């Protein structure tokens, strides 16, 4: 029996994109303001944690060739094309929880999260 598999090419998809709440946009602007050459923040993912994937934030001085740019209220969020199948449609928020302030990710693709909220899992379509 011949089984044919197709390669997944993220460039072939129409993405919903990512959004920033006003609080998240303000915090991204604060993080990049006054830092010479700083363009924005990159949101990626990595395999980690008990649920499968974790979010990774990094500053961007030079975008990667496969980065997609989402800009809102002057804040720039760069996302690697390879991460889009896992985080497309995500709203990025910045919240205060007790004494902590942190980015929160409202990801419609996340099927489950670990108890501490540090990692998430997705289910293949």
TrEMBL record:
Family: Belongs to the HesB/IscA family.
NCBIfam families registered for this protein in UniProt: iron-sulfur cluster assembly accessory protein (TIGR00049), PRK09504.1 (NF007050), sufA_proteo (TIGR01997)
Domain Core: 18-118
Keyword Repeat belongs to the record: no
Pfam families according to UniProt: Fe-S_biosyn
Database matches in Gene3D superfamilies: HesB-like domain
UniProt keyword terms in alphabetical order: Iron
Name this polypeptide is given: Fe-S cluster assembly scaffold SufA
């Amino acid at each position: 029996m011949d089984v044919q598999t197709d390669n997944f090419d993220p460039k072939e998809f129409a993405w919903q994109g990512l959004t920033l709440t006003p609080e998240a946009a303000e915090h991204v602007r604060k993080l990049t303001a006054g830092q010479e050459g700083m363009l924005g923040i990159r949101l990626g993912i990595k395999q980690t944690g008990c649920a499968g994937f974790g979010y990774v934030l990094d500053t961007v001085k030079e975008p990667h060739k496969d980065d997609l740019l989402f800009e809102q209220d002057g804040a720039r969020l760069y996302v690697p094309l390879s991460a889009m199948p896992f985080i497309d449609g995500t709203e990025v928020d910045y919240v205060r929880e007790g004494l902590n302030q942190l980015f929160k990710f409202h990801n419609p693709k996340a099927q489950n999260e670990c108890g501490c909220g540090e990692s998430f899992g997705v289910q293949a379509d």
